[in-house]
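Researcher: Go.
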Amino acid sequence: MVGSSKKKACECSCSCARSSYANGSAGEKYEKPDRQSGASMMEQLVPEITTHALSYLDYPSLCRLSMTNSSMRRAANDDSAWKSLYHKDFTVEQDSIRPANGWKAYYAATKAVVSINSEFYNIIRERSLPEMSHLWLRADYVKCINGSGELFTGYNSVMESWGVAFNWHQPVNFQVCDVRVRVLNEMAWVTMKAFTNVNSFHVTNVYEFHDSRWFMVHHHSSMMLNDGEVDPHIFG
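Model: Structure:
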């Protein structure tokens, strides 16, 4: 309409009607971009940027973010974010796998296995046979191969071997490193290196999931053959 102070909006499907002009060109009015009412800055980011930003969060922060609102829950449950967190906290060796229940569930399962594996070594430090008996699955197929190469088969035999070790051996100062975990359905195996003030070992532990928790079913410790240098400062 002639004399009208308003400019007719473009009826095309482009975004020109919402464009902002920061250079102040003549005849072009600067307008603020439309924003969702009440939406946070994070919620207004494009998905790729949001995923990248979430990759800097740790496990507790990502879990807390998922409990804020529906939009943040969708972002925090994004599979790419959990895959990035898994690679940051654990290993990039499993980049090509496709977890059946997604990376969030796979991260949680891996974290649980890492926790029970750490508990195993805490039990050894404390020399607690009752705790060790609760860690192992009560089955006749469980096996334990200690650093000397002795093989013990069956739950009772394995527990007897730990009883002898706790009563006979002096406490050993050791450090566990290079821990790698692989979870496959209801089974998980963990490889690592264990350095003591006497010897160094390659270790493999196998766990099975029963009654909502992980149980150890196999422990194998093999002495290193000069392929692992012990850090002289590792024991302080």
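Model: The longest strand covers residues 174-184.
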